[in-house]
Amino acid sequence: MSINRLVRSNLTTQLGSCIKYVAASRSSQERLFSAPSIARVYGTSATLQSEDGFKGHDMLAPFTSGSLSSDVHPLLIEKSEGSYVYDVNGKKYLDALAGLWCTALGGNEPRLVEAATRQLNTLPFYHSFWNRTTRPSLDLAKDLLETFTARKMAKAFFTNSGSEANDTQVKLVWYYNNALGRPDKKKFIARHKSYHGSTLISASLSGLPALHQKFDLPAPFVYHTDCPHYWRYHEPGETEEEFSTRLANNLENLILKEGPETIAAFIAEPVMGAGGVIPPPATYFEKIQAVVKKYDILFIADEVICAFGRLGYMYGCDKYNIKPDLVSLAKALSSAYMPIGAVLVSPEISDVIHSQSSKLGSFSHGFTYSGHPVACAVAIEALKIYKERNIVEQVKSIAPQFQDGIKAYSDSPIIGEIRGTGLILGTEFTDNKSPNDLFPPEWGIGAYFGAQCEKHGMLVRVSGDTIMMSPPFIMTPSEVDELISKYGKALKATEERIPVKAVEEVETNGKLDLCMKYVAASRSSEERLFSAPFLAQVNGKSETLQSEEGFKGHSMLAPFTAGSLSTDVHPLLIDKSEGSYVYDINGKKYLDALAGLWCTALGGNELRLVEAATRQLNTLPFYHSFWNRTTRPSLDLAKDLLETFTARKMANVFFTNSGSEANDTQVKLVWYYNNALARPEKKKFIARQKSYHGSTLISASLSGLPALHQKFDLPAPFVYHTDCPHYWRNHRPGETEEEFSTRLANNLENLILKEGPDTIAAFIAEPVMGAGGVIPPPTTYFDKIQAVVKKYDILFIADEVICAFGRLGYMYGCDKYNIKPDLVSVAKALSSAYMPIGAVLVSPKIADVIHSQSSKLGSFSHGFTYSGHPVACAVAIEALKIYKERNIVEQVKSIAPQFQDGIRAFCDSPIIGEIRGTGLILATEFTDNKSPNDLFPPEWGVGAYFGAECEKQGMLVRVAGDTIMMSPPFIITPSEVDELISIYGKALKATEERVKELKSLQKDDNVVEQAIAEQGNEENNDQALRAFASTQHVMGGNVAPSNPNMNWFDESEKEEENEFIEVVSRSQQRARRNAASAENREAYIRRSKGVSK
């Protein structure tokens, strides 16, 4: 008699005390239930924290129910050594999941620690935007392309996680098809039970219902085809090859149903990971690739789990003969010692991006930490280790012992299937060895097994009644034997245990802690902003370019950089930093007036941050925070952050890897909250024109910058944009600042009433708008805006990514402007950019709903592998200590007047329209006649010329069309401010003279055009258009029209955005009319003056 039949008659009356926990963990369709609470009983208290404990901590834990965090002590991992980790009580565990499929080289690999420390001491951060970058970024891109041999790849684009990588895939594919004039080809096909990440879009690609139903996903452009799980889904008598043929036919039928001309890409993991470890059946990928190739559909290989040796091959594509167009990487790329991900791009796609840049503008996408030099340095060293130690062969040699040792238990009556390859394996518990005879979820078979493993000193992944293991690549034969032994002991205990006894123990002992840790363990659940001005390179001197060897045509797909710029122009390669300065590879010194990318608040080489990182790397370089497991730095940082935020009380902190992920998380968090309150219609967001909130597909939708939208068919239809609060540019004649604020608040209210207050979920705003042009709010603006959103029960999200931690002379922008937000996004200065990290601060009313409603909606099924990364958290903790001990806020307040007044002294310049800013953030906008309406012709490149002059004089600023932005490090000294002002003045004087020359030429355009025509240099004219596209006052070059057939997109363009597009068109027509590049105009000016080149 089966266990199922033996006890079923007795269960009904004895499970009452645990059913309430079961409901919280159930994810219905895919049998990926949360491990039931009763399994906690089966463990011992040895793994719990003693007197003080950690339950009820301040972190909103990923993939963990609120009640679990509140009521149960987490398993707190404190140290790692090789294949083992240790909890805070010193208990040792064999880490059979390698953290989260990722610590391939185990704990404390000294070469990775040394690589990180060496880079931290040299250049802890510089960005890769606008054709500036660092050597580690370029070197890693080159190394990655060399490792991938399944087919030739051309470029690598860097992200902070696998989620961001797969989110990037969607934007990259859409950009590609827009460039080819195929605006309808935008749909994606993924597979049921796949996992591709946790941003709103990568979660849509994922095929796990728990990631969808709580968040109103998937997005309507995503479709899912069959899961290739032969054991579960094959028909009687059907061979693996016949099964593969049927699935390929089903895929083709789906393509034909939707229309091949609408399907852009198919995405697949070589071996499905989080969905249950599902290797493909025989000939599966051969048949699938034939179908997608037949219909000109791109193949995306999600190698986030499989790459770098997991399967006994460098890539899963090698094992299964996959020839992808795009590849996603993360996890083992750095052995999880640093947050980093990447996208590999085929030549066909890369060539389109490059050749079409004059048509669509640059690839306006990227993250602050794309190509973070420390993360890249660690990844480079990891790749060296994989090669030098022949890790692939090492995995191949140890894998049979691992696979055969576990599969020896396949005769167990409670095991349905054991499946896997290389060093990845899944065990699925079922009754009668049938995929159809599932154990009742409330029995918690998988959870009990996981608890027994933990009791015996081994950590595995529990997903309903499926157990997953993916040990480190460095595992030894004796450690494999230990793993098999512990597995056997846990299995024996699970076979002997029956649920009736479990329920009796719940009733008599009430010991729920160990099981509850597994409850969530089963849940599979700018305007003028972004192209680096080409003219800045043309106008600058060659001394800033790299000499003999050069770096143009490098292997990195650079963020917010035109493809032609990467190909044809040497990047500015930053090699070292000290305090407020950075140095290029030729040793030239620059005052970094942008603090990297608004973020290196403490400058370069702050020793305390380096020491904090090194100390944590030597102790515990990585452990995750899923399923009520976590690390001390994660909890400590959450507590510290809540203490720093005093504008109102906040309750919890959720960690991300970037500001983009933080704002993407805001959308999912708000939707979850309103679903919990039974308000499914309250899902729309209102942001502001010219705002910047990130670069995932959703955070880019929140952003109010057209270049982030039209090239990618954004914004999403649930996002609306209200007025930009730029008084100088947008006020009416005679209108005071307060009257302007009143009008904008009224406009917001009218938008809310038009859409329906019951549909508006949240309003998001930066205290001071940053990348949109440094726009402080007018008087009483936030008072009036908050009154409106409060009136209609709309959440207020403060995007403090740029403003927080002292930038404005206050710890938070919310302090300066008396904002009382419901949610807050932070990043950048949180770690002074030494480590990729972001966070969301959650108010009590939202946190309470998440916690109390977990039994209704399940846990908050969202999170990133590197959420709460212990090294990033350790660095952030130290940064907060420094801000407090050195009274950084007061330091900024004391230096800010010198900075602001010194620059504003130039406001009488005839080419300056406005200088605006507060604290240590400031912008200069160049216009003619000091009017917001008299813009300089974009082809003049006034802002770009100023930026090039600054660079020539040894200072780096942010150029966005004809707006110049500065946000120097918080540690800048009075003498450095004087230097900044002096260089600014020299650059301004040169730019004034340049404008005079161009104006004199403009008086007789016919003479100019005739002179240029005589040159007959069409190639230079083409270069001119590329230059104009990257420096236009109206950002973004040509705009791709939105696709009217895609219901994901908002088809109703705002009036202001239409006007914006018209300005773009006029600008381009004028550029083509003039057909004069900066080089041609320079040549004419030189000839007119009798000056030789």
Describe the structure.
The chain has 41 helices and 32 strands. The N and C termini lie far apart (94 Å). The model is unreliable at 1-51, 504-548 and 1014-1093 (pLDDT under 50). The chain is 42% helix and 14% strand. α25 runs parallel beside α34 (870-885) and α35 (888-904) packs parallel to α37 (974-1002). The protein is globular and about 85 Å long. The chain has a seven-stranded mixed sheet with strand order 5-11-10-9-8-6-7, sandwiched between helices. Strands 21-27-26-25-24-22-23 form a seven-stranded mixed sheet, sandwiched between helices. The protein is of the alpha/beta class and 1093 residues long.
Label this structure with key terms:
disordered N terminus; alpha/beta; seven-stranded mixed β-sheet; 41 helices; 1093 residues; 32 strands
